[in-house]
UniProtKB/TrEMBL annotation:
It comes from the Bacteria. The chain crosses the membrane at residues 147-165, 177-193. Keywords: Membrane, Transmembrane, Transmembrane helix. This is Uncharacterized protein.
């Protein structure tokens, strides 16, 4: 019997703050999660774990970003309207993010009037943000719902096969069960192999599209940005291409 144990991150809700969201390109409300490292047995934990840090998740677009709790006056226990949340948790937001807010305002007013170097800088920043998110995702073992369902399904399938064989053909019990077990394992393996692609489709591409759409980037600009990302050896450049990003931006408009 395989005994699975170790430490894993446990995320618990810790409150709300206001901050700048680079995907929304605006001030936004964020939920705050405390990250604890807790001991688990078969991925079941009983404690919140030892404090390892905090992260914030944009209430609008779902972007997850690292955070330093000390930068906020406090964490609000409730989600206040944005202006009040800003006053209560991050009163210096507009000063701290003055450059980003000014760039976002310029972008809203005249996206195609930005000079080439600023456009390049903003496209690169949007790609880098998602390249970071992908690398954080790759570094943590987390199973998505399809994988959990396939594990549950494989167990149920083996149990049903076992019960049927016992009743109908007990002489084939061993062989039948081995076949059912490997079919179940195959299904779980298939879902595991698709997990990375689902993360790209659900999490990375929509956010990338959202942060790039206001720039109305030309295909050539995205191509060149991907080329720079590839030169830096970032995984994102190997996993998606410029055509998929353009498609995601087009999907956003529809
Ligand atoms: Zn956002």
């Amino acid at each position: 019997m395989i005994f699975v144990w170790g430490r894993k991150p446990v995320y618990t809700h810790a409150g709300y703050v206001a901050d700048y969201c680079p995907v929304c390109r605006a001030a936004r409300a964020f939920t705050v999660q405390r990250i604890g490292m807790a001991w688990h047995v078969y991925y079941v934990t009983v404690s919140k774990g030892e404090l390892a840090g905090y992260q914030r998740t944009c209430c609008d677009c779902g972007m997850v970003l690292p955070m330093e709790v000390g930068h906020y006056s406090h964490l609000s226990p409730e989600q206040l309207p944005l202006v009040q949340l800003e006053q209560a948790t991050n009163p210096h937001l507009s000063i701290r993010h003055a450059d980003a807010l000014a760039a976002a305002a310029r972008l809203r007013e005249a996206p195609l009037m930005l000079d080439e170097s600023e456009r390049r800088r903003q496209i690169d920043a949007a790609l880098r943000l998602q390249a970071d998110a992908l690398e954080v995702y790759d570094a943590t073992v987390r199973l998505d719902r399809e994988v959990w369902w396939s594990i549950a399904g494989a167990f149920a399938f083996c149990a049903v096969v076992l019960a049927a064989l016992k009743q109908q053909a007990p002489e084939n019990l061993d062989n039948g069960f081995i076949i059912a077990f490997f079919l179940g394992l195959g299904a779980v393996g298939w879902q595991l192999s698709q997990m990375g692609e689902r993360f790209l489709r659900r999490e990375i591409l929509p956010k990338l599209a959202r942060s790039l759409a206001p720039l109305q980037p030309r295909p050539a600009e995205i191509d060149e940005a991907f080329e720079r990302l590839r030169e830096q050896g970032r995984k994102l450049a190997q996993r998606i291409d410029s055509a998929r990003v353009q498609q995601a931006i087009a999907d956003l408009r529809n």
